[in-house]
Sequence to fold (844 residues):
Amino acid sequence: VSVAIVAVGDELLAGAHPDLNSPEIARRLGQLGVDVARVCVVGDQEEELAALLLGLARDHAVVVVTGGLGPTLDDVTRHAAARAAETGLATSEEALESLRRWYAGRGVEMPTANRRQALLPEGARLLANPVGTAPGFQLALGGATVFALPGPPREMRVMLEREVVEWIGANGPAARSPERRMHFFGLSESLFAEGVGPLMDRDAEPRVGCSVADGVLTVVLRSRAPDPERARASLDAATARLRELFLPHLFSEDEPRLERVLARELVQRATTIATAESCTGGLVAALVTGVPGASAVFGEGFVTYSDRAKRERLGVSGALLERHGAVSREVAEAMAAGAAERTGAELAVAVTGIAGPDGGTPAKPVGLVCFATLLSREPRSTERRFPALGRDWVRTVSAQTALFLCLQRLRERPALGGARPD
Amino acid sequence: VSVAIVAVGDELLAGAHPDLNSPEIARRLGQLGVDVARVCVVGDQEEELAALLLGLARDHAVVVVTGGLGPTLDDVTRHAAARAAETGLATSEEALESLRRWYAGRGVEMPTANRRQALLPEGARLLANPVGTAPGFQLALGGATVFALPGPPREMRVMLEREVVEWIGANGPAARSPERRMHFFGLSESLFAEGVGPLMDRDAEPRVGCSVADGVLTVVLRSRAPDPERARASLDAATARLRELFLPHLFSEDEPRLERVLARELVQRATTIATAESCTGGLVAALVTGVPGASAVFGEGFVTYSDRAKRERLGVSGALLERHGAVSREVAEAMAAGAAERTGAELAVAVTGIAGPDGGTPAKPVGLVCFATLLSREPRSTERRFPALGRDWVRTVSAQTALFLCLQRLRERPALGGARPD
Fold:
């Protein structure tokens, strides 16, 4: 099954916000063994969308469209699909009835604007929306099947599962080549390429690809071996080689998010963590508490942005701040110690640095960030000089580094069940 | 100038991370009055990318490609562009020299893998990369101009500015219709459409479009009036009408990010803020401290995830927690009061709720979130029952709501220079 995705909306096209639906759909279909071949973003233009749908229907078996099904006149997906199929639009009584029920369930009358949402291209199958007002539809276009889903992620998600995933299950995906993923932190693409050498050749088996996001280098290995056993052997050999080459950077072979790997490790070791943040301003705590069930490992964090907060909340001494400055390994260590002492957490991590754009000096430039961890009262600290690539970037990579340093310290200790990555 | 953007990468296509380059390019070109007509995401496939480039070059004057210029063999943009232009590849001595200098400046020898980055399609113009190893290129393809830029955002950004923006300045963008934007919080698209009525008709002047992200409804008004004066009058009238209709929801007419509008308002009123967070776990503090210069208005935040932390750090009484539960307006008020008292901030905001997926009860379901603000010692609290649309969503919309409630409270007070939105 060859799949294309279309995201519709002037605001997506203008870059007001990124298209997050397409990545989510691609990930979900990927789990089913279906690769997406093309993603397109177009504006709220009926003619353009119609032409794009026709073109994609020629080259792909399935086209998933998100967006443009709202009640307002800039929602043109219904009209564009009808135009592409050279058919008309008709009000679906079933859709209208379900819209009325949706509003009745909320004790309000249906706004007349929403009548538009009951229109469907003739010949289309209605896709019910259990969590919102916009129904979707499924339409044959050339030899392809078009699924039109609403744009709001939560509505898209439910209907993707109920309709598209269901349909692909029934119509059978093409077999996909087996793959493995490995996630590294603090390793650049160039160094990786240099280290692996001919393993990355175009015709190597397995094929090795890599990409970087927020400091995490993800390596994908895909086997082209003709049978599953040989594929497994080939992937085993290549992953073993990569582990050997880059072990200090490897943090996971399944989960790409550092905070989830860290939370898992904390749970396995029945260890709790506390955070003390200056320049990251709560990002580390927000990442950790974003993991479901975080309360088992996290009780409390300190966002001590000012010197006063570092003194009063964490007991960092005024003399220490005076002598070394707020951005120093010494202050980071004192922050971590203060956080551990006040919370009783076994592991504490502290971050203090200069995120910019202002506040840098020749001795302490923008991008200088100091980190400390304290594990069972044993302190350790380090500093990084990140390139000054913008406040957001410095903060994000600092938060990621803090998580990685915590993970490293935990894994230095033998644990029940061994301490190998994952 | 009609512009298309292509983002290249298997990982983007597989949804491992979203394409953030294209929105950034679209926003930048939008500032120049140039609208992007199409965005495409494709994988690391030379043939596919070549075919796509040919197709886009037929319909657009400019094609901006990002990604696929790295040193590894899965970086195929150079080869695909050469294939599309039916030309060969040659090593650029200039590029090779600059690569060697780049590495020399860092005291290391150039890895041989990077030699690949000095390849250019014949006839292409080299675009120097001052901040990384991947040079870009500019190539005539059919009647179109193709710009190939590196994928890492910081490198893309610099070269977009130096090359693409420069080129568009020299080659003159088409005049674009004047537009205005308005940003609302807590207003659904349906309610907006119902309220504005015929203002949103397809042929209304100005044309009104809207979109929602993280609870923020952005309305774009575009005039099609033939001259600037009539366009201004038409936009003035429409924005005045929308202000009248939805004033309580309107928070900005320029900046779409709530935390930036709030920080600006705090600076203007010389007011400081403190945060006390349970379910949002540091997100509110991270948003506020993400604004450059945040230290002028923010000294400290508390991430009190456990009951113990609420008691010990914020002085919430055990009896109160017992009587009302941690998720209650009473506890939210006590958290805000504790944060204000301990930090001396004039404004404090507290959030406590059930983000899920677990922890809900019939009386306090997942999605119930309580908020309190304290301004000059005057408390106020409220609760929201958000739909249980996932932990991330509940946390994000809760953090946004906290920012909006702070902004509302500040704006109730007359300030120097008036208290109108923005």
